[in-house]
Every structure is written in C-alpha cells, then in structure tokens.
Design brief:
The protein folds into two domains: 227 residues, no CATH class; 113 residues, CBS-domain (Roll), CATH 3.10.580.10. Strands 1-2-3-4 form a four-stranded mixed sheet. A three-stranded antiparallel sheet has the order 5-9-8. Strands 6-7 form a two-stranded antiparallel ribbon. It has 364 residues and is an alpha+beta fold. It contains 13 helices and nine strands. A hairpin with a 2-residue loop joins β3 and β4.
Amino acid sequence: MSQSFRICRIAGIDVKVHFSLIFILAFLIYAFYVMPPPYGYADFPPDLRLVMAVITTIVFFACILFHELCHSYFAIKFGSKVRGIVLFIFGGVSLIDEIPKEPRKEFIMAIAGPAGSFFLAFLSYLLMAVSADPLQRFFFIMWYFNAILGAFNLIPAFPMDGGRVLRSFLAQKMGYVKATRAAAEVGRFMAIAMAVFGLIGGNVWLILIALFVYLGAGEEERHVTLEGMLSRFKIADIMTPNPICVTPDTPKDEVLELMLKYKHLGYPVVDEYGRILGIVTLKDLIEKPGERVEDVMTRNVVVTTPDASADKILKIMTEKGIGRIPVVDESGRVIGIVTRSDIMRVTEIVEVIENYSKLYGHRE
C-alpha cells in the first residue's frame, strides 16, 4: 500500500503503518476511555482510564499484527514471498506475492490467522480468570476482541480468510479459477446482506465493511481470472519482435523524434552487438540532465525471456511500476519488447473470444 511507513521488521518481514491508522487509533483510545464496563474503563480514575485506553489500543493492533504474522509464517514456509504487513484503518493485510494454489496449502495459510486469534482469545480468557482489575478488564477486552477477530475473518467472503478457506474446499472439486468465482459470488452475497443489515440498523461501520468485502470479492475474482487468461501465453506470443533500439551515444533529440514518429515512450539501449545496456524513457529525457542517451538512461533495467509466462511479467510490471520490459535471448541480445498495453490488449481479445464462444454455443 502507498502512503505507508515502516515501523519495525519481524523475522525478515517489514511491518508498515498506513496513515489511516492514526484515525482509528485516536478513535479507539477515546472509545475505551469513555465506554462503560465491561468494554471500556469509564468507571476508573481519569489517569488510569487514559493509561489503560492507550495500552489496550496498542495491544489491540499488536493482536492484529500477530494474526497477520501467522499467515505470513505459513506463506514463507510454502515458498511464497512476503513483501510486508500493513496495518490500516480496517485492520491488517499481509502483502504476499503469490497465494499457494494447492488447496491444502491455501487452507493452512488462510486458517492460520483465525487460529492465532483464537489462541490469543483462549490465553486472554485464562489470564482474565486469575487477574484483578484493571488487568481483568484488559484481558476480558482482549478475549472478546480476539474471539470476534477470529470469527469475523472466517466469514466466507473475500478478502477475509474465510473466502480463501471456502475456495480451498471448492478448488478440490472444480479447479482454482471456478472455485474463486464461486467464492466471490458468496462474498458478494454476504456483502449485500451486511449492507442491508447496516442500513436497517443505522450501522455505518457495517456498511463500510460491506463495501470493503464487495469490492474485495470482485478484485480477487478479476485478479484470478486475469491470471488464468495470461498463464496460457508466453511473452513470445505477445511481444513486439525486433524493436527499435538506440545506442548510448544517440543524442536526446533523436530519441524524442523517434517518440514523435512511432508513439513509443521507451526504447532499449544496446551495445554494438545488440546486447541490452539499459532503457531510456520520456521521463528520463525530461528529468535527467545530459545530451546523450548514456547520460540519462536507466541502467538497472528489468528484462525477460521469450518463454516467460505473461501473468508473471504483468505482476512484475505492477509491483515495480514499469510500463515496458525488453525481451532478451540467452546472450542478452534484445529480440523484442513487451508493454503493459500489449498484455492488456491480449486479455481484452481473449475475453471477447470467450464471450463470443459462449454466445455462439448458446445460440447453437
């Protein structure tokens, strides 16, 4: 997520905080301060109320962090890369590069978070039984919160853990993509039901959560559908072969003329043998001083091979915020270039073909 900053690193995982967390932190401190027992400290002396409200709020999000760390632990164990954990206004999210597609692995990874929350709830319940106020009140709140967190995340709707648990069961019978679509439909139904109850009861939070769930279900379905489409294609099927290249000593003015003529905003930079040295884009020409390509080009360039899967390359483009990637052979010689637009056009064409086939089959 953008607009986040790192606060610590746990077991090699960056823990970040989104700016929106500030609002919910302030709200929760106030809520615990004024709320009567057993969910707040309104009956305590003012100084103690404030201290307990602040501690409870901090531990509240520490429990959410533990929930996400449980997901991340199993994600790493199953070979996925975890780019970090972000705490934000609705809780937390683990930034996992690739969710395991094996049903058993996805189930374990998805259930790990709620299981961790239930463990904290059980531990808090035991400590509550042997404590006196204010700790007894604190452990009651932690027991209640973690039990709710675990149960809420088991609701069978994306992007919550229950949606992934449901998909892991469905995928055993109908395949990953179809299971995702079915689970997304369930998620949308749950979101609509939550929104209706929120409107009837005047619960703004429930309506916001319903919107979050509805959008999350659609996003997961689109992502998996797109991934399924692109996994059929290699970069060799999509790339533009023999692209126009420039050399390090090409003047900037000539590159600008190429851009005006061919309407491409980036060109591979190659040596005399056609081997990749870098890439030069319109942004490089505008923002960097110099007279020739070698003065402004980006040297640390991401490249791909023609046999790479299109879905993997789109993911790299999205993560790194780049619009084009040169395609090279084993010797590093540029043989093509692929852009985000190239990949998205392929998905549009495949969607049209599939929709046409369905319509034609239906008419037949």
